[in-house]
Design goal:
Blueprint (H helix, E strand, L loop, with lengths): L7 H48 L1 H7 L5 E3 L2 E5 L5 E5 L9
Helix pairs in contact: 1-2
């Protein structure tokens, strides 16, 4: 490999690229771990709700409806296949006539 001199400005730019790449990779690893934990928690909640709903009509009537349950700004509802879905709270649509 041939040795060459590189200006400080170029070295700073290259350092910036290396540092931002390392940050990106770290954040991707953290995001992957967060997705895994979210999936685990969601599956655990769904399993518990299915189990509890089989024992209590009141709980089933709360969660297994088209409206779902609003908790801390998140809407919890079960889709047609029985999977628990979490989304932002109810969406209000304004229609002008």
């Amino acid at each position: 490999m041939k040795k060459q001199s590189i200006s400080k400005e170029v070295l700073q730019m290259l350092d910036g690229v290396v540092e931002s790449k390392a940050t990106k990779e770290k954040l991707e690893q953290e995001a992957s771990a967060a997705r895994h934990e979210y999936k685990k928690q969601l599956e655990g909640a769904a399993n518990l709700l299915h189990d509890q709903a089989s024992k209590s009509d009141a709980l089933a009537d709360q969660f297994f409806t088209e409206e779902g349950v609003l908790y801390k700004g998140q809407l919890f509802l079960f889709d047609d296949e029985g999977a628990l879905v979490v989304g932002m709270g109810p969406q209000v649509i304004e229609v002008e006539v």
